[in-house]
C-alpha cells in the first residue's frame, strides 16, 4: 500500500475499506478489508478500471463526485442515508438484516504529490449495524406515531387525533370563511347487541361499521371513533344540505349492512346528527355540541335517522 512498511501493516489491519484510484479511474491500491468483502483477489484488481471491477457503480454520479473532489481539492462525503451503498460488498453481520449488501459511509479525498493531485482515495466504512438499528428505530417510531393516531379496534382515527383534526379544520374554516360540516353517528341499541350476541360480536360490528362509513366518505373527510359506539366525520368545504345528503346515504347503507359473526347475520342501524359551522361558533367544541344535540334528537324521535342542527334551531324558533 505504501513504501513505508509500517503504514502498509496498519492499512491492512484497518476495519475500513481503502481504495486508491488514479485520475483515469484505474485501481492503484486497495486494502485487505476491501478485497475480503468484495470477494476478489487483492492482486488481480490492481490496474483494472474501477467501473470494470465494480460494474454496479453509478458511473455518472461517481465521475461527478470525483471531479468535484479534484477541482475543489477538498474531501467529500456520502452517507448511507444518501446512498445505502456504492460498492456491492458483503457484510459480516451475524444478525439478519434486510440489506443484502454492506451499508457504507464513503469519504473521497484527493492525494497530492508536488502540489498536484495525482490520485483519489476512497474510504469505505461499514455502517450496516447503524443502518439496521436506525431502520428498526424508524419503524418503531412510525408504529408509535400511528398508535397515537389510530383506534386499535377499528383502525380509524382515535378521538384525540380526530379532535386535533377538527380543531385545525375549524380554525381554517373560520379564518377563510369556508364551509365545514360535522356528522356524528351513534349505533342504535348497541348494548342490547352486546348483551345478546356477546362483546366479540359487538367488536366485529364496530369494525365493519367503521369500514363501511369510511368507504362512503371522501378522501379529504376525516373520520374517527368518538367513543364506544360513536363515530364522527369532519367534512371540509361542505354545507348543511351536502352533509345531510352524505349522512342519509351512510344511514341507509348501515341499515342494509349485514355483518356475519360466526353463524349469525347481524343487522344494525345508526342515528345521525349533522351540524355545520355558524358565525356564533367560537370553538370547535360548539360544533360538536350542535351535532350532538341533533344526534340526541335523532335518538329521541325514533333512531335510524338523520337530524340536522339547523332543523332543531328552526323547531326551537317555532
Ligand atoms: N363490543 C363493544 N362494546 C362497546 C365498546 N365500547 C362501548 N361498548 C358498549 O356500547 C354500549 C353502548 O350502550 P348505550 O350507551 O346504552 O347505548 P345503546 O345501547 O346503543 O342505546 P342507544 O344509543 O340509545 O340506541 C355499552 O354497552 C358499551 O359497553 C367496544 O369497544 N366494544
From TrEMBL:
CDD domains: GGDEF (cd01949). Residues 178-311 form the GGDEF domain. It catalyses: 2 GTP = 3',3'-c-di-GMP + 2 diphosphate. This is diguanylate cyclase. GO terms for molecular function: diguanylate cyclase activity. Pfam families: GGDEF, PAS. The keyword Methyltransferase does not apply. It comes from Thalassotalea castellviae. InterPro entries: Diguanylate_Cyclase, GGDEF_dom, Nucleotide_cyclase, PAS-like_dom_sf, PAS_fold, Rev_trsase/Diguanyl_cyclase. Keywords: Nucleotidyltransferase, Transferase. It is an enzyme of class 2 (transferase). Its EC number is 2.7.7.65. Gene3D superfamilies: 3.30.70.270, PAS domain.
